[in-house]
UniProtKB/TrEMBL annotation, chain A:
GO terms for biological process: chromosome segregation; kinetochore assembly; mitotic spindle organization. Residues 1-10 have a biased composition (Basic and acidic residues). The gene is CENPH. Residues 39-102, 104-219 form the Centromere protein H C-terminal domain. One of its GO terms (molecular function) is kinetochore binding. Belongs to the CENP-H/MCM16 family. It holds the Pfam family CENP-H. Residues 1-30 are annotated as: Disordered. Residues 44-99, 128-170 form a coiled coil. Keywords: Centromere, Chromosome, Coiled coil, Kinetochore, Nucleus. It is found in: Chromosome, Centromere, Kinetochore; Nucleus. One of its GO terms (cellular component) is kinetochore. This is Centromere protein H. It comes from the Eukaryota. It comes from Oryctolagus cuniculus (Rabbit).
TrEMBL record, chain B:
Gene3D superfamilies: P-loop containing nucleotide triphosphate hydrolases. It comes from Oryctolagus cuniculus (Rabbit). It is found in: Chromosome, Centromere, Kinetochore; Cytoplasm; Nucleus. This is Centromere protein M. GO terms for cellular component: cytoplasm; kinetochore; nucleus. Component of the CENPA-NAC complex, at least composed of CENPA, CENPC, CENPH, CENPM, CENPN, CENPT and CENPU. The CENPA-NAC complex interacts with the CENPA-CAD complex, composed of CENPI, CENPK, CENPL, CENPO, CENPP, CENPQ, CENPR and CENPS. The keyword Zinc does not apply. Pfam families: CENP-M (PF11111). Component of the CENPA-NAC (nucleosome-associated) complex, a complex that plays a central role in assembly of kinetochore proteins, mitotic progression and chromosome segregation. The CENPA-NAC complex recruits the CENPA-CAD (nucleosome distal) complex and may be involved in incorporation of newly synthesized CENPA into centromeres. The gene is CENPM. Keywords: Centromere, Chromosome, Cytoplasm, Kinetochore, Nucleus. PANTHER family: CENTROMERE PROTEIN M.
Length: 225, 180
């Protein structure tokens, strides 16, 4: 085979603080220590992964390769079988890692329990809130009823007072009062007349008990009725 | 060395190397530029080659990802890639190699059917990616994808290995429908 000339393209690191160089560790001259530590950790992960690769290749090469000559389609089938095996091993590994994440599962279970508790407490609080609302409504209704009743009582009282007042102010009473007053006046005049008659007659009314009684009675002021 | 092996050298620290193999220099160069522009925490190195085997006199780092670029508009690129495939060690196809087919959008210029590439990729149990390297947006997106794949194959992503990525990228194949 003819060997073709080979070209090499320039390499360009995208590391922060790194300089391009001919292979090897990019220089972190003047870089911060955190960048260094990150770089070292990344390199550590890389080297670990590469070591795993090499180890697995060594293990694979230790297995004996089948020496018998197989036909092409047999080889194909064998290859497919091996590929399926790889898939199954991968799946089993992932299932195991999930199952081994027991801490994770515990946390999830805890979270679910707490969520249920939260939902229940919320339901309870909601029903209590509703009851409270109902009671407040009832209280409000009772208050209103009592208010209206008081109002009724007040109006009744006012009505009675009004009736009383109107009664007092009615014309009948007025005329009766007037008549009464006139009678009182007339009687007072008659009283004075009798008084003056007795006093004018210049008799000694104090000696006679009957006359004394009459004079004293006339002294009673009729307006006091 | 006539055969390219994936794990024959020790890896460089924080370095990931991708080897783009393809007959079309311009496309490879453009893809290389796009890849170097991507934002990557590790140092990326892009090597270009028209075909394998590579000259053994050059000191080069170990190749983490091998991308075979096939231009659907030219049969020659497919042929050259097929020839180069013989010089690759089988262990590359455990997740460190992939096929990139470009130019599928323009049907009238395609001399290679996309099914050929799909079948080739299936033979080698490797993923095949389609894009249009002439279009800036598609190329940038593909470059980012390749950069991510490169990081995983180089072992820079903890917990994900090249082979697990391979099984993830495996498309649900229904060969009966394909052969219709």
């Amino acid at each position: 085979m003819e060997s073709q000339p080979e070209k090499r393209a320039a390499a360009e690191p995208a590391d922060s603080g790194g300089e391009g160089g001919a292979g090897g560790l990019p220089q972190v001259a003047g870089g911060r220590s955190e960048d260094r530590v990150t770089l070292l950790l990344r390199l550590r992960a890389q080297i670990k992964q590469q070591l795993v690769e090499y180890k697995s290749m060594v293990d694979a090469n230790e297995e004996k390769t089948p020496e018998q000559i197989m036909q092409e389609n047999q080889i194909e089938d064998k290859i497919e079988e091996l590929e399926n095996e790889i898939e199954e091993v991968k799946i089993a590994y992932e299932m195991k890692s999930i199952a081994l994440n027991s801490e994770f599962m515990d946390n999830m279970k805890q979270i679910l329990k707490l969520n249920k508790l939260i939902i229940r407490s919320q339901k309870e609080s909601r029903s209590l809130e509703r009851k409270r609302l109902e009671i407040r409504k009832k209280r409000l209704d009772l208050k209103k009823a009592s208010e209206s009743k008081l109002l009724e009582i007040q109006t009744e009282k006012n009505k009675q007072k009004e009736d009383l007042d109107s009664m007092e102010n009615s014309d009948k009473i007025k005329t009766i009062r007037q008549n009464l007053q006139m009678e009182i006046n007339v009687t007072t005049v008659i009283q004075h007349v009798f008084q003056n008659l007795i006093l004018g007659s210049k008799t000694n009314w104090a000696e006679d008990s009957a006359l004394k009684e009459i004079v004293l009675q006339l002294e009673k002021n009729l307006t006091r009725i | 060395m006539s055969v390219l092996r994936p794990l024959d050298k020790l890896p460089g620290l924080n370095t990931a190397t991708v080897l783009l193999v393809g007959a079309d220099d311009a496309l490879l160069q453009r893809l290389a530029d796009s890849m170097l522009k991507t934002d990557c925490a590790s140092e990326l190195r892009v090597h270009l080659a028209r075909s394998l085997p590579l000259p053994s006199n050059v000191n080069r780092p170990r190749v983490d990802l091998l991308v075979f670029v096939i231009n659907l508009h030219s049969k020659y690129s497919l042929q050259s890639v097929e020839k180069s495939l013989h010089h690759v060690d089988a262990s590359f196809f455990l997740g460190k190699a992939c096929f990139l087919a470009t130019g599928a959008g323009r049907e009238n210029l395609c001399s290679v059917h996309r099914n050929t590439i799909v079948r080739l990729a299936r033979t080698y149990r490797s993923p095949v990616l389609f894009c249009d390297l002439e279009v800036e947006g598609s190329r940038a997106a593909m470059a980012q994808r390749l950069a991510r794949m490169l990081q995983i194959s180089a072992g820079h992503v903890p917990g994900v290995s090249a082979m697990s990525l391979l099984s993830l990228l495996r498309s649900s194949e229904s060969p009966s429908l394909e052969d219709l």
